[in-house]
Write a structure and sequence with these properties.
Elements lengths: L1 H8 L9 H23 L3 E6 L8 E8 L3 E8 L2 E4 L1 E2 L5 E7 L7 E11 L4 E10 L7 E3 L3 H4 L6 H16 L19 E3 L4 E4 L2 E5 L3 E3 L6 E3 L4 E9 L3 E9 L2 E11 L6 E2 L4 E5 L10 E7 L2 E3 L1 H8 L7 H9 L9
Parallel strand pairs: 9-11
Antiparallel strand pairs: 1-2, 2-6, 3-4, 3-7, 5-6, 7-8, 10-13, 11-12, 13-20, 14-19, 15-16, 15-18, 16-17, 17-19, 17-20, 20-21
Helix pairs in contact: 1-2
The protein binds zinc ion.
Length: 332
Amino acid sequence: MLGVLAVTLHQGPFALYPPTVMRWLSSALAWCLLTVASGSAAAPVNITIKARAQRAGDVLLLTVQTALAARAVTGQAFGTPIHFYQTQEPGTWQALVGVDVDVPPGDHGIEIAATSETGEEMRETRTLAIQARNSPARHLTLPEKYVNPPESVQERIRAESEQLKTIFSTVSAGRLWEGGFARPVPGRVISDFGKQSILNGQPRSVHSGVDLRAASGTPLKAPAAGRVILVKDLYFAGNSVIIDHGLGLYSHLAHLSRFRVKEGQLVERGEIVGYTGQSGRVQGPHLHWSVRLCNSRIDPIAVLWVLGNREPGQKRRAVARASGSAGGSERE
Ligand SMILES: [Zn+2]
């Protein structure tokens, strides 16, 4: 094509210019065309983002389509690798990105790199304008041993914290949540994710999960398919079930009265894993459900928004319910 254009320049009105000017015009035109060509080739990766909001504590579903069929897609955001999986649609990859509740507001970059089947590299970046969460504080009155634990339990608390850190830092290969997410109990939200906790008047960490209303003994369902990675009585979270959904995504279900699964067991979405209760640091019976994605603390309700497996028309009502005023008492 460049050859054709260069030839065209030597004819018609341009033919009046001396050969040196003609060479300059040809090379200038060739440079412009190459710039345009490389400009369009610089965006061979198309990124779309689905999210309830781009706020601290939210989760983003990235869909990436590549100009050339890719054999691998990688990326990073917030200093953490992104774990992509191939979808049923040819040339389309997806990944979840967690925006930890402590990510500061402002611009943050996402970098995506894809390798074609013949080895070509394709790259694209995107800037996210992350907003602050601005959740109000929540005030709880709890037994003193849960606010300022005695020396005798410090070692237990430290060991459990280490164990949880190890679990949430592990990224298991393979996505197990293909069937989507659903609420583990039908009860409404009684304490939102992300609130600063004030326990007996003392500031503590933010609420890293969501509290759902549930009377003691309510059947507790796996929110998505996965492998049960922990079944244990933890000092703060009480009787806990942690499910590994794969690719760094975990659900922690806390304060149970009884277990119905064993460690290592594979569960389907909706399968009963135990019964709700009020074990651990609580004011009363409820379900505390937290979600971690590659160690980021994210709002389970945001996960339902992105991966919720609802009938058409249910989404608006479910979101309205989840974001409505909590009512009732805060539960921890
Ligand atoms: Zn809670």
